[in-house]
Specification:
Order of helices and strands: EHEHEHEHEEHEEHEEHEHEEH
CATH architecture: 3-Layer(aba) Sandwich
Oligomer: single chain
Number of domains: 1
Shape: globular
Largest sheet: 7 strands, parallel
CATH topology: Rossmann fold
CATH class: Alpha Beta
Number of helices: 9
Strand content: 15-25%
Number of strands: 13
CATH superfamily: NAD(P)-binding Rossmann-like Domain
Strand order of the largest sheet: 3-2-1-4-5-7-11
Helix content: 25-40%
């Protein structure tokens, strides 16, 4: 979090110094964002769907609400008197979430927000966290915010539909910014924990698939930048590294002195999407990445 202190020098001070901010979904990103803003004097209302997390969150932020975004009355209550809203929802649990769970988590939440925004005139900035998965598979080609979306499965389709619902709710008094994130890593989600288990193995394929990443610090930094500069529309958020899986695994193994991974190009790998996502629009708006290159 120390890296985030540099942000105030690059952000326009057009909004009030202290705000009432609601974070719908205090998971990995939302809870860290809540800590960041709470430390800077804002009044933070954070939500969780887990009774077990209420205590730990209450010790760190102003107010904690146990709720889900598919509860219209709860959403209405949450947004009253707020200046800024960040939507950082995700299905709970360790199992792969079913499409029906995605619909309840994203689609119903987006519909409820679109309905409630009409009744909350104090709320002027909404930041909605989405995913670069909406672009689908481009076989390693570049995409930016003007590229068409081409989701591969129902879950990504749901994300696209949710984006559109919340974007269409924007008006001249309420800015809505959709932030499409790459793969998220950071404290307690280090890349060695994702790739280290491959050390010494022989893996089918060439390892030439591109995976786009973003550090949690930059998600927090970009959200605050969007809030202070009152941005609306769609922005991609990934780092500058643009490395293939092979290159990423090599970096991890080299850094931690792990046995190298071998790639067997004579065998077919499991087909997964490969895409290079441009972050140029957000950088052109003035945001400077805290971690432009992949941290291992």
């Amino acid at each position: 979090m120390a890296h985030l202190r540099q942000l105030m020098s690059q952000q326009a001070q057009r909004r009030p110094i202290f705000e009432n901010i609601a974070i719908l979904g205090c998971g990995y990103v939302g809870s860290a964002l809540a800590d960041y803003w709470q430390d800077r004097g804002h009044w933070i209302t954070g939500t969780t769907t887990s009774q077990e997390r209420v205590g730990s969150l209450s010790a760190a932020i102003s107010k904690v609400v146990l709720m889900k975004g598919d509860d219209l009355r709860a959403v209405q209550s949450l947004l009253q008197g707020q200046d800024t809203l960040v939507v950082s929802v995700a299905p709970t649990g360790f199992q792969e979430a079913a499409a029906a769970t995605y619909e309840a988590t994203y689609l119903t939440t987006a519909r409820n927000l679109a309905e409630v925004l009409k009744q909350t005139p104090t709320l002027t900035q909404i930041v909605y966290l989405s995913s670069c998965s909406v672009y689908g598979d481009r076989q390693g080609e570049w995409v930016d915010e003007t590229s068409s979306v081409s989701p591969l499965e129902r879950k990504s389709q749901i994300l696209c539909e949710s984006e559109q619902i919340i974007l269409q709710a924007a008006n001249e008094h309420q800015k809505v910014c959709v932030l499409r994130l790459g793969g998220i890593y950071g404290p307690d989600r280090e890349l060695v924990n994702m790739f280290g288990g491959l050390a010494g193995m022989t893996i089918p394929g060439k390892g030439d698939r591109f995976i786009n990443w973003v550090h949690r610090d930059d998600i927090i930094g970009a959200i605050d930048f969007i809030r202070l500069n009152e941005l609306g529309g769609i922005y991609n958020l990934v780092d500058d590294s643009q490395l293939t899986v092979k290159e990423q695994v090599k970096l991890v193994c080299s850094h931690y002195n792990l046995p190298p991974v071998n790639w067997d190009s004579s065998k077919l790998s499991i087909q997964r999407k490969s895409i290079q996502v441009s972050n140029g629009k957000l950088k052109a708006a003035g945001y400077e990445l805290i971690h432009p290159q992949l941290l291992v």
